[in-house]
Protein backbone atom coordinates (compact mmCIF):
# COMPACT_ATOMS: atom_id res chain seq x y z
CA UNK A 1 0.00 0.00 0.00
CA UNK A 2 2.78 2.46 0.90
CA UNK A 3 4.84 1.33 -2.05
CA UNK A 4 1.89 2.04 -4.23
CA UNK A 5 1.58 5.54 -2.73
CA UNK A 6 5.22 6.34 -3.31
CA UNK A 7 5.03 5.07 -6.86
CA UNK A 8 1.94 7.12 -7.46
CA UNK A 9 3.55 10.31 -6.22
CA UNK A 10 6.61 9.59 -8.24
CA UNK A 11 4.41 9.17 -11.27
CA UNK A 12 2.63 12.44 -10.58
CA UNK A 13 5.94 14.26 -10.14
CA UNK A 14 7.38 12.78 -13.29
CA UNK A 15 4.23 13.64 -15.16
CA UNK A 16 4.34 17.20 -13.91
CA UNK A 17 8.01 17.56 -14.80
CA UNK A 18 7.46 16.11 -18.24
CA UNK A 19 4.55 18.45 -18.86
CA UNK A 20 6.64 21.43 -17.82
CA UNK A 21 9.50 20.35 -19.95
CA UNK A 22 7.18 19.72 -22.88
CA UNK A 23 5.86 23.24 -22.48
CA UNK A 24 9.44 24.48 -22.62
CA UNK A 25 10.12 22.31 -25.60
CA UNK A 26 7.06 23.67 -27.35
CA UNK A 27 8.12 27.21 -26.57
CA UNK A 28 11.55 26.42 -27.82
CA UNK A 29 10.12 25.50 -31.13
CA UNK A 30 8.33 28.82 -31.17
CA UNK A 31 11.70 30.53 -30.79
CA UNK A 32 12.73 29.40 -34.18
CA UNK A 33 13.03 32.27 -36.55
CA UNK A 34 12.65 32.18 -40.23
CA UNK A 35 14.96 34.48 -42.12
CA UNK A 36 14.95 33.95 -45.81
CA UNK A 37 15.51 30.25 -46.41
CA UNK A 38 17.32 29.72 -43.12
CA UNK A 39 15.92 29.09 -39.69
CA UNK A 40 17.67 29.50 -36.34
CA UNK A 41 16.86 29.64 -32.66
CA UNK A 42 18.40 31.65 -29.88
CA UNK A 43 18.03 29.10 -27.10
CA UNK A 44 19.35 25.96 -28.71
CA UNK A 45 20.85 26.92 -32.00
CA UNK A 46 20.27 24.33 -34.66
CA UNK A 47 23.31 24.72 -36.82
CA UNK A 48 21.85 23.92 -40.21
CA UNK A 49 24.98 25.18 -41.94
CA UNK A 50 23.39 28.54 -42.45
CA UNK A 51 25.83 31.40 -42.07
CA UNK A 52 23.08 33.95 -42.38
CA UNK A 53 21.42 32.56 -39.25
CA UNK A 54 24.60 33.02 -37.21
CA UNK A 55 24.95 36.55 -38.56
CA UNK A 56 21.40 37.38 -37.68
CA UNK A 57 21.95 35.97 -34.18
CA UNK A 58 24.96 38.17 -33.69
CA UNK A 59 23.04 41.17 -34.85
CA UNK A 60 20.38 40.32 -32.31
CA UNK A 61 22.96 39.96 -29.53
CA UNK A 62 24.43 43.32 -30.28
CA UNK A 63 21.25 45.25 -30.68
CA UNK A 64 19.59 45.75 -27.25
CA UNK A 65 22.20 45.80 -24.47
CA UNK A 66 19.51 45.72 -21.71
CA UNK A 67 18.66 42.07 -22.43
CA UNK A 68 22.18 41.02 -23.31
CA UNK A 69 22.70 39.18 -19.98
CA UNK A 70 19.90 36.78 -20.88
CA UNK A 71 21.98 34.93 -23.30
CA UNK A 72 21.40 31.44 -24.53
CA UNK A 73 24.42 30.40 -22.45
CA UNK A 74 22.78 31.36 -19.13
CA UNK A 75 19.56 29.76 -20.11
CA UNK A 76 21.36 26.52 -20.80
CA UNK A 77 23.08 26.62 -17.42
CA UNK A 78 19.77 27.14 -15.68
CA UNK A 79 18.26 24.20 -17.46
CA UNK A 80 21.17 21.95 -16.70
CA UNK A 81 21.00 22.93 -13.00
CA UNK A 82 17.39 21.99 -12.87
CA UNK A 83 18.10 18.73 -14.58
CA UNK A 84 20.91 18.08 -12.08
CA UNK A 85 18.58 18.82 -9.19
CA UNK A 86 15.88 16.63 -10.61
CA UNK A 87 18.32 13.85 -11.24
CA UNK A 88 19.59 14.24 -7.70
CA UNK A 89 16.06 14.06 -6.35
CA UNK A 90 15.29 11.00 -8.37
CA UNK A 91 18.45 9.31 -7.10
CA UNK A 92 17.45 10.21 -3.52
CA UNK A 93 13.94 8.93 -4.09
CA UNK A 94 15.22 5.65 -5.51
CA UNK A 95 17.56 5.18 -2.56
CA UNK A 96 14.81 5.76 0.02
CA UNK A 97 12.38 3.41 -1.70
CA UNK A 98 15.03 0.72 -1.75
CA UNK A 99 15.71 1.36 1.94
CA UNK A 100 11.99 1.20 2.80
CA UNK A 101 11.60 -2.02 0.93
CA UNK A 102 14.53 -3.47 2.79
CA UNK A 103 13.13 -2.24 6.15
CA UNK A 104 9.73 -3.63 5.32
CA UNK A 105 11.35 -6.87 4.57
CA UNK A 106 13.21 -6.67 7.88
CA UNK A 107 9.92 -6.11 9.69
CA UNK A 108 10.10 -2.42 10.53
CA UNK A 109 7.11 -0.57 11.71
CA UNK A 110 4.73 1.01 9.30
CA UNK A 111 5.14 4.18 11.30
CA UNK A 112 8.59 4.68 9.94
CA UNK A 113 7.29 4.09 6.45
CA UNK A 114 4.68 6.70 6.97
CA UNK A 115 7.30 9.04 8.39
CA UNK A 116 9.46 8.48 5.35
CA UNK A 117 6.54 8.90 3.04
CA UNK A 118 5.73 12.21 4.70
CA UNK A 119 9.33 13.30 4.30
CA UNK A 120 9.20 12.21 0.67
CA UNK A 121 5.99 14.12 0.22
CA UNK A 122 7.58 17.21 1.72
CA UNK A 123 10.64 16.92 -0.49
CA UNK A 124 8.39 16.31 -3.51
CA UNK A 125 6.34 19.41 -2.70
CA UNK A 126 9.55 21.44 -2.32
CA UNK A 127 10.85 20.15 -5.59
CA UNK A 128 7.55 20.87 -7.27
CA UNK A 129 7.55 24.41 -5.96
CA UNK A 130 11.13 24.82 -7.02
CA UNK A 131 10.42 23.42 -10.46
CA UNK A 132 7.41 25.69 -10.83
CA UNK A 133 9.61 28.62 -9.78
CA UNK A 134 12.26 27.61 -12.29
CA UNK A 135 9.65 27.20 -14.98
CA UNK A 136 8.29 30.64 -14.19
CA UNK A 137 11.78 32.10 -14.42
CA UNK A 138 12.33 30.27 -17.65
CA UNK A 139 9.09 31.58 -18.96
CA UNK A 140 10.16 35.10 -18.09
CA UNK A 141 13.47 34.55 -19.80
CA UNK A 142 11.76 33.04 -22.74
CA UNK A 143 9.34 35.90 -22.94
CA UNK A 144 12.23 38.33 -22.79
CA UNK A 145 14.10 36.45 -25.43
CA UNK A 146 10.97 36.26 -27.46
CA UNK A 147 10.35 39.93 -27.02
CA UNK A 148 13.94 40.64 -27.94
CA UNK A 149 13.82 38.33 -30.88
CA UNK A 150 10.56 39.61 -32.15
CA UNK A 151 11.87 43.13 -31.77
CA UNK A 152 14.97 42.16 -33.69
CA UNK A 153 12.76 40.48 -36.22
CA UNK A 154 10.55 43.49 -36.45
CA UNK A 155 13.61 45.65 -36.81
CA UNK A 156 15.00 43.33 -39.42
CA UNK A 157 11.68 43.39 -41.19
CA UNK A 158 11.53 47.14 -40.97
CA UNK A 159 15.11 47.34 -42.14
CA UNK A 160 14.43 45.07 -45.07
CA UNK A 161 11.27 46.98 -45.80
CA UNK A 162 13.07 50.27 -45.73
CA UNK A 163 15.89 48.74 -47.76
CA UNK A 164 13.34 47.64 -50.30
CA UNK A 165 11.82 51.07 -50.25
CA UNK A 166 15.25 52.62 -50.66
CA UNK A 167 16.04 50.22 -53.48
CA UNK A 168 12.80 51.09 -55.17
CA UNK A 169 13.48 54.77 -54.74
CA UNK A 170 17.00 54.33 -56.04
CA UNK A 171 15.65 52.49 -59.05
CA UNK A 172 13.13 55.20 -59.65
CA UNK A 173 15.78 57.84 -59.31
CA UNK A 174 18.12 55.97 -61.63
CA UNK A 175 15.44 55.64 -64.28
CA UNK A 176 14.55 59.26 -63.70
CA UNK A 177 18.18 60.26 -64.18
CA UNK A 178 18.34 58.12 -67.33
CA UNK A 179 15.19 59.78 -68.57
CA UNK A 180 16.64 63.19 -67.74
CA UNK A 181 19.87 62.28 -69.46
CA UNK A 182 17.97 61.30 -72.59
CA UNK A 183 15.94 64.46 -72.35
CA UNK A 184 19.09 66.40 -71.65
CA UNK A 185 20.83 65.09 -74.75
CA UNK A 186 17.91 66.04 -76.96
CA UNK A 187 17.66 69.33 -75.18
CA UNK A 188 21.38 69.86 -75.62
CA UNK A 189 21.01 69.19 -79.33
CA UNK A 190 18.14 71.63 -79.51
CA UNK A 191 20.13 74.17 -77.55
CA UNK A 192 23.15 73.69 -79.78
CA UNK A 193 21.13 74.18 -82.94
CA UNK A 194 19.51 77.20 -81.34
CA UNK A 195 22.94 78.55 -80.51
CA UNK A 196 24.03 78.04 -84.09
CA UNK A 197 20.94 79.83 -85.35
CA UNK A 198 21.55 82.59 -82.87
CA UNK A 199 25.11 82.98 -84.09
CA UNK A 200 23.98 83.17 -87.72
CA UNK A 201 21.19 85.54 -86.81
CA UNK A 202 23.49 87.76 -84.80
CA UNK A 203 26.08 87.83 -87.57
CA UNK A 204 23.31 88.70 -90.00
CA UNK A 205 22.13 91.23 -87.51
CA UNK A 206 25.53 92.87 -87.30
CA UNK A 207 25.68 93.04 -91.09
CA UNK A 208 22.25 94.62 -91.10
CA UNK A 209 23.27 96.97 -88.35
CA UNK A 210 26.32 98.01 -90.33
CA UNK A 211 24.12 98.72 -93.35
CA UNK A 212 21.67 100.55 -91.16
CA UNK A 213 24.45 102.60 -89.63
CA UNK A 214 25.69 103.53 -93.09
CA UNK A 215 22.22 104.51 -94.19
CA UNK A 216 21.69 106.47 -91.01
CA UNK A 217 24.96 108.26 -91.52
CA UNK A 218 23.92 109.15 -95.04
CA UNK A 219 20.58 110.44 -93.85
CA UNK A 220 22.26 112.47 -91.13
CA UNK A 221 24.63 113.96 -93.66
CA UNK A 222 21.71 114.87 -95.87
CA UNK A 223 19.71 116.36 -93.04
CA UNK A 224 22.59 118.39 -91.70
CA UNK A 225 23.25 119.69 -95.17
CA UNK A 226 19.62 120.65 -95.64
CA UNK A 227 19.36 122.40 -92.31
CA UNK A 228 22.63 124.26 -92.76
CA UNK A 229 21.34 125.85 -95.95
CA UNK A 230 20.96 129.54 -95.25
CA UNK A 231 20.58 132.13 -97.93
CA UNK A 232 23.07 130.90 -100.45
CA UNK A 233 22.83 128.29 -103.13
CA UNK A 234 24.00 125.06 -101.66
CA UNK A 235 24.62 121.75 -103.22
CA UNK A 236 24.59 118.51 -101.48
CA UNK A 237 26.74 115.90 -103.04
CA UNK A 238 26.84 112.56 -101.51
CA UNK A 239 28.36 109.68 -103.33
CA UNK A 240 27.37 106.36 -101.86
CA UNK A 241 29.59 103.34 -102.20
CA UNK A 242 27.14 101.72 -104.59
CA UNK A 243 29.16 100.90 -107.72
CA UNK A 244 26.90 102.45 -110.31
CA UNK A 245 24.77 105.01 -108.58
CA UNK A 246 25.40 108.12 -106.61
CA UNK A 247 22.91 110.48 -105.11
CA UNK A 248 23.36 114.15 -105.46
CA UNK A 249 21.10 116.42 -103.56
CA UNK A 250 20.84 119.86 -105.08
CA UNK A 251 19.42 122.56 -102.93
CA UNK A 252 18.46 125.60 -104.93
CA UNK A 253 17.38 129.04 -103.67
CA UNK A 254 17.28 130.16 -100.10
CA UNK A 255 13.68 131.00 -99.17
CA UNK A 256 11.94 128.03 -100.76
CA UNK A 257 14.78 125.63 -100.22
CA UNK A 258 14.13 122.97 -102.84
CA UNK A 259 15.82 119.77 -102.08
CA UNK A 260 16.51 117.56 -105.03
CA UNK A 261 17.80 114.11 -105.08
CA UNK A 262 19.50 113.44 -108.33
CA UNK A 263 20.32 110.05 -109.61
CA UNK A 264 23.59 110.03 -111.49
CA UNK A 265 25.65 107.43 -113.23
CA UNK A 266 28.94 106.72 -111.55
CA UNK A 267 32.14 105.46 -113.08
CA UNK A 268 33.91 103.65 -110.28
CA UNK A 269 36.65 102.14 -112.44
CA UNK A 270 38.34 104.67 -114.69
CA UNK A 271 41.53 106.04 -113.17
CA UNK A 272 40.58 105.22 -109.60
CA UNK A 273 36.82 105.80 -110.02
CA UNK A 274 34.62 108.23 -108.15
CA UNK A 275 33.47 109.95 -111.32
CA UNK A 276 30.05 111.54 -111.63
CA UNK A 277 29.06 111.13 -115.27
CA UNK A 278 27.23 114.12 -116.78
CA UNK A 279 27.33 113.20 -120.48
CA UNK A 280 27.12 109.82 -122.11
CA UNK A 281 26.57 108.69 -125.70
CA UNK A 282 27.03 105.25 -127.20
CA UNK A 283 24.22 104.31 -129.59
CA UNK A 284 22.31 107.42 -130.71
CA UNK A 285 19.13 106.50 -128.88
CA UNK A 286 18.72 109.94 -127.36
CA UNK A 287 18.25 113.13 -129.37
CA UNK A 288 20.76 115.80 -128.34
CA UNK A 289 19.18 118.58 -130.48
CA UNK A 290 17.69 120.45 -127.55
CA UNK A 291 17.18 124.02 -126.37
CA UNK A 292 18.72 125.97 -123.48
CA UNK A 293 16.16 124.92 -120.92
CA UNK A 294 16.62 121.22 -121.55
CA UNK A 295 20.40 121.52 -121.43
CA UNK A 296 19.97 123.38 -118.16
CA UNK A 297 17.80 120.72 -116.48
CA UNK A 298 19.16 117.72 -118.34
CA UNK A 299 17.62 114.91 -120.39
CA UNK A 300 17.92 111.24 -121.11
CA UNK A 301 18.24 108.37 -118.66
CA UNK A 302 21.22 108.11 -116.35
CA UNK A 303 21.63 104.43 -117.29
CA UNK A 304 21.56 105.24 -121.00
CA UNK A 305 22.51 108.21 -123.09
CA UNK A 306 21.95 111.45 -121.22
CA UNK A 307 22.94 114.98 -120.29
CA UNK A 308 22.79 115.50 -116.55
CA UNK A 309 22.05 119.22 -116.79
CA UNK A 310 24.06 122.43 -116.62
CA UNK A 311 22.48 123.58 -113.36
CA UNK A 312 23.25 120.33 -111.55
CA UNK A 313 26.76 120.34 -112.97
CA UNK A 314 27.24 123.93 -111.83
CA UNK A 315 25.91 123.24 -108.33
CA UNK A 316 28.00 120.13 -108.05
CA UNK A 317 31.28 121.58 -109.28
CA UNK A 318 30.95 124.77 -107.26
CA UNK A 319 31.13 122.64 -104.09
CA UNK A 320 34.89 122.61 -104.38
CA UNK A 321 37.72 121.95 -106.77
CA UNK A 322 36.82 119.44 -109.46
CA UNK A 323 38.57 117.60 -112.26
CA UNK A 324 37.10 116.76 -115.65
CA UNK A 325 37.68 113.65 -117.71
CA UNK A 326 36.51 112.98 -121.26
CA UNK A 327 36.44 109.37 -122.51
CA UNK A 328 36.31 108.81 -126.30
CA UNK A 329 35.98 105.77 -128.55
CA UNK A 330 36.03 105.63 -132.33
CA UNK A 331 34.46 103.10 -134.69
CA UNK A 332 37.78 101.31 -135.20
CA UNK A 333 38.00 100.27 -131.54
CA UNK A 334 40.45 102.95 -130.45
CA UNK A 335 39.87 104.83 -127.28
CA UNK A 336 41.37 108.00 -125.91
CA UNK A 337 40.87 110.36 -123.04
CA UNK A 338 41.40 113.98 -122.14
CA UNK A 339 41.74 114.96 -118.50
CA UNK A 340 41.73 118.43 -116.94
CA UNK A 341 42.93 118.71 -113.36
CA UNK A 342 40.75 121.73 -112.79
CA UNK A 343 37.25 122.19 -114.06
CA UNK A 344 34.83 124.94 -113.09
CA UNK A 345 31.56 126.21 -114.40
CA UNK A 346 29.86 129.52 -113.82
CA UNK A 347 26.17 129.92 -113.12
CA UNK A 348 23.41 130.39 -115.67
CA UNK A 349 23.76 134.18 -115.65
CA UNK A 350 27.35 133.77 -116.87
CA UNK A 351 26.18 131.33 -119.53
CA UNK A 352 27.66 128.32 -117.76
CA UNK A 353 31.16 129.31 -118.80
CA UNK A 354 33.74 126.57 -118.51
CA UNK A 355 37.28 127.11 -117.22
CA UNK A 356 39.85 124.37 -117.57
CA UNK A 357 43.44 123.83 -116.46
CA UNK A 358 46.02 121.06 -116.38
CA UNK A 359 45.29 119.15 -119.57
CA UNK A 360 46.67 115.64 -120.01
CA UNK A 361 45.60 112.55 -121.92
CA UNK A 362 45.77 110.60 -125.14
CA UNK A 363 43.16 112.51 -127.13
CA UNK A 364 45.64 114.87 -128.77
CA UNK A 365 48.69 116.78 -127.62
CA UNK A 366 46.56 119.76 -126.87
CA UNK A 367 43.05 120.33 -125.70
CA UNK A 368 40.21 120.31 -128.17
CA UNK A 369 38.16 122.37 -125.71
CA UNK A 370 38.68 126.12 -125.23
CA UNK A 371 40.01 126.44 -121.72
CA UNK A 372 39.58 130.17 -121.19
CA UNK A 373 35.94 130.50 -120.20
CA UNK A 374 33.76 129.90 -123.22
CA UNK A 375 30.02 130.31 -122.66
CA UNK A 376 27.52 127.49 -123.32
CA UNK A 377 25.46 127.86 -126.50
CA UNK A 378 22.30 126.18 -127.75
CA UNK A 379 20.31 126.88 -130.87
CA UNK A 380 18.26 129.39 -128.86
CA UNK A 381 21.14 130.88 -126.82
CA UNK A 382 24.12 132.08 -128.78
CA UNK A 383 27.05 132.62 -126.45
CA UNK A 384 29.86 131.57 -128.83
CA UNK A 385 32.85 133.51 -130.00
CA UNK A 386 31.79 133.62 -133.65
CA UNK A 387 30.79 137.15 -134.51
CA UNK A 388 28.74 136.47 -137.60
CA UNK A 389 27.53 132.92 -137.04
CA UNK A 390 25.57 130.69 -134.66
CA UNK A 391 27.75 127.64 -134.04
CA UNK A 392 24.95 125.71 -132.25
CA UNK A 393 22.76 126.00 -135.30
CA UNK A 394 25.49 124.91 -137.70
CA UNK A 395 27.06 122.14 -135.65
CA UNK A 396 23.87 121.17 -133.71
CA UNK A 397 23.42 120.36 -130.02
CA UNK A 398 24.55 122.48 -127.08
CA UNK A 399 28.23 123.03 -126.38
CA UNK A 400 30.94 125.40 -125.29
CA UNK A 401 31.50 126.62 -128.86
CA UNK A 402 34.41 128.89 -129.49
CA UNK A 403 34.33 130.04 -133.09
CA UNK A 404 33.29 127.38 -133.53
CA UNK A 405 36.21 125.39 -132.00
CA UNK A 406 37.75 121.91 -132.16
CA UNK A 407 35.06 119.86 -130.43
CA UNK A 408 31.38 119.15 -130.04
CA UNK A 409 30.43 115.95 -128.25
CA UNK A 410 26.69 116.77 -128.43
CA UNK A 411 26.46 116.71 -132.25
CA UNK A 412 24.37 114.36 -134.34
CA UNK A 413 25.02 110.65 -133.72
CA UNK A 414 26.17 108.97 -136.94
CA UNK A 415 26.38 105.22 -137.17
CA UNK A 416 29.38 103.45 -138.64
CA UNK A 417 29.72 104.00 -142.40
CA UNK A 418 28.02 107.36 -142.11
CA UNK A 419 30.43 108.89 -139.64
CA UNK A 420 33.05 110.23 -142.08
CA UNK A 421 33.04 113.84 -143.38
CA UNK A 422 30.36 114.91 -140.99
CA UNK A 423 30.97 118.42 -139.65
CA UNK A 424 27.91 118.33 -137.38
CA UNK A 425 28.70 114.90 -135.87
CA UNK A 426 30.37 114.00 -132.58
CA UNK A 427 33.73 115.70 -132.96
CA UNK A 428 37.02 115.78 -131.04
CA UNK A 429 39.43 117.32 -133.52
CA UNK A 430 42.77 116.34 -131.97
CA UNK A 431 41.70 112.68 -131.66
CA UNK A 432 40.10 111.82 -135.07
CA UNK A 433 40.07 115.08 -137.03
CA UNK A 434 37.46 117.79 -137.83
CA UNK A 435 34.85 115.65 -139.64
CA UNK A 436 34.99 112.18 -137.96
CA UNK A 437 31.94 111.33 -135.88
CA UNK A 438 32.87 109.18 -132.85
CA UNK A 439 31.18 106.03 -131.64
CA UNK A 440 30.94 106.77 -127.92
CA UNK A 441 31.72 109.52 -125.46
CA UNK A 442 31.55 110.06 -121.74
CA UNK A 443 32.16 113.25 -119.73
CA UNK A 444 32.53 113.13 -115.96
CA UNK A 445 33.76 115.06 -112.96
CA UNK A 446 35.09 114.23 -109.55
CA UNK A 447 36.60 116.20 -106.67
CA UNK A 448 40.16 117.26 -107.46
CA UNK A 449 41.52 115.69 -104.27
CA UNK A 450 39.60 112.44 -104.66
C1 LIG B 1 25.19 19.24 -13.39
O1 LIG B 1 25.77 17.93 -13.43
C2 LIG B 1 26.81 17.79 -14.37
C3 LIG B 1 27.26 16.34 -14.37
O2 LIG B 1 26.60 15.55 -13.52
C4 LIG B 1 27.92 18.77 -14.04
O3 LIG B 1 28.94 18.69 -15.00
C5 LIG B 1 27.38 20.18 -13.99
O4 LIG B 1 28.35 21.13 -13.64
C6 LIG B 1 26.18 20.26 -13.05
N1 LIG B 1 25.64 21.59 -13.13
C7 LIG B 1 25.42 22.39 -12.09
C8 LIG B 1 24.93 23.71 -12.36
O5 LIG B 1 25.60 21.98 -10.91
C1 LIG C 1 10.18 10.48 11.82
O1 LIG C 1 11.59 10.46 11.53
C2 LIG C 1 12.30 11.55 12.04
C3 LIG C 1 13.72 11.51 11.53
O2 LIG C 1 13.84 10.93 10.35
C4 LIG C 1 12.18 11.61 13.52
O3 LIG C 1 12.81 12.77 13.97
C5 LIG C 1 10.76 11.56 13.94
O4 LIG C 1 10.57 11.50 15.25
C6 LIG C 1 9.96 10.39 13.33
N1 LIG C 1 8.55 10.43 13.66
C7 LIG C 1 7.88 9.35 14.02
C8 LIG C 1 6.46 9.51 14.32
O5 LIG C 1 8.44 8.31 14.03
C1 LIG D 1 9.16 43.95 -24.89
O1 LIG D 1 9.97 44.79 -24.13
C2 LIG D 1 9.60 46.13 -24.15
C3 LIG D 1 10.66 46.91 -23.36
O2 LIG D 1 11.75 46.18 -23.06
C4 LIG D 1 8.23 46.29 -23.58
O3 LIG D 1 7.83 47.66 -23.63
C5 LIG D 1 7.27 45.44 -24.33
O4 LIG D 1 5.99 45.53 -23.78
C6 LIG D 1 7.75 44.04 -24.40
N1 LIG D 1 6.84 43.27 -25.24
C7 LIG D 1 6.39 42.11 -24.88
C8 LIG D 1 5.50 41.41 -25.86
O5 LIG D 1 6.68 41.60 -23.84
C1 LIG E 1 23.42 67.70 -69.66
O1 LIG E 1 24.46 67.65 -70.59
C2 LIG E 1 25.53 68.53 -70.31
C3 LIG E 1 26.51 68.43 -71.43
O2 LIG E 1 26.28 67.32 -72.23
C4 LIG E 1 26.18 68.21 -68.98
O3 LIG E 1 27.21 69.13 -68.70
C5 LIG E 1 25.13 68.26 -67.91
O4 LIG E 1 25.69 67.88 -66.68
C6 LIG E 1 23.98 67.35 -68.28
N1 LIG E 1 22.94 67.47 -67.28
C7 LIG E 1 22.27 66.41 -66.81
C8 LIG E 1 21.22 66.68 -65.78
O5 LIG E 1 22.49 65.28 -67.21
C1 LIG F 1 21.66 85.11 -92.88
O1 LIG F 1 22.33 85.49 -94.06
C2 LIG F 1 22.51 84.42 -94.98
C3 LIG F 1 23.32 84.95 -96.13
O2 LIG F 1 23.66 86.26 -95.94
C4 LIG F 1 21.15 83.93 -95.44
O3 LIG F 1 21.31 82.82 -96.32
C5 LIG F 1 20.37 83.48 -94.25
O4 LIG F 1 19.06 83.11 -94.63
C6 LIG F 1 20.28 84.60 -93.23
N1 LIG F 1 19.65 84.10 -92.05
C7 LIG F 1 18.75 84.80 -91.37
C8 LIG F 1 18.20 84.16 -90.15
O5 LIG F 1 18.43 85.92 -91.69
C1 LIG G 1 20.80 102.14 -126.60
O1 LIG G 1 21.17 101.69 -125.29
C2 LIG G 1 20.09 101.71 -124.38
C3 LIG G 1 20.63 101.35 -123.03
O2 LIG G 1 21.55 100.32 -123.14
C4 LIG G 1 19.01 100.75 -124.85
O3 LIG G 1 17.94 100.79 -123.94
C5 LIG G 1 18.56 101.17 -126.21
O4 LIG G 1 17.63 100.23 -126.69
C6 LIG G 1 19.73 101.25 -127.16
N1 LIG G 1 19.25 101.80 -128.39
C7 LIG G 1 19.72 101.44 -129.59
C8 LIG G 1 19.13 102.11 -130.74
O5 LIG G 1 20.59 100.61 -129.68
C1 LIG H 1 19.51 22.72 -6.99
O1 LIG H 1 20.90 23.07 -7.19
C2 LIG H 1 21.25 24.37 -6.80
C3 LIG H 1 22.70 24.62 -7.19
O2 LIG H 1 23.20 23.57 -7.87
C4 LIG H 1 20.98 24.61 -5.34
O3 LIG H 1 21.28 25.93 -4.98
C5 LIG H 1 19.53 24.25 -4.98
O4 LIG H 1 19.27 24.36 -3.63
C6 LIG H 1 19.12 22.87 -5.46
N1 LIG H 1 17.73 22.59 -5.24
C7 LIG H 1 17.26 21.49 -4.73
C8 LIG H 1 15.80 21.37 -4.57
O5 LIG H 1 18.00 20.54 -4.46
TrEMBL record:
SUPFAM superfamilies: Fibrinogen C-terminal domain-like. One of its GO terms (biological process) is angiogenesis. CDD domains: FReD. Residues 242-449 form the Fibrinogen C-terminal domain. InterPro entries: ANG-1/2/4, Fibrinogen-like_C, Fibrinogen_a/b/g_C_1, Fibrinogen_a/b/g_C_dom, Fibrinogen_C-term_domain, Fibrinogen_CS. Keywords: Angiogenesis, Coiled coil, Disulfide bond, Glycoprotein, Membrane, Signal, Transmembrane, Transmembrane helix. GO terms for cellular component: extracellular space. Residues 163-211 form a coiled coil. The chain crosses the membrane at residues 6-24. This is Angiopoietin 4. It comes from Salarias fasciatus.
Amino acid sequence: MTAFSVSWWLFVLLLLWTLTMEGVEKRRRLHRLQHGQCSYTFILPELDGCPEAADAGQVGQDSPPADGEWSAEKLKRLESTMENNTTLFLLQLENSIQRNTRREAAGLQSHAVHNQTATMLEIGTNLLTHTAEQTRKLNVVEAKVLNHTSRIEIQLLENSLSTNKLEKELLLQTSEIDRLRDKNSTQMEAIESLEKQLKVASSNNTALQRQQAQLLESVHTLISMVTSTTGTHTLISMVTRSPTLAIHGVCVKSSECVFLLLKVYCDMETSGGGWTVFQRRFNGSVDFQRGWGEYRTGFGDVFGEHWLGNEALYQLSSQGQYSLRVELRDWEGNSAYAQYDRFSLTGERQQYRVYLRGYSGTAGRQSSLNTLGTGFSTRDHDNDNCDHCKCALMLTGGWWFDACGFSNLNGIYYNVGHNIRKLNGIKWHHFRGPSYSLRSTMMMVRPYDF
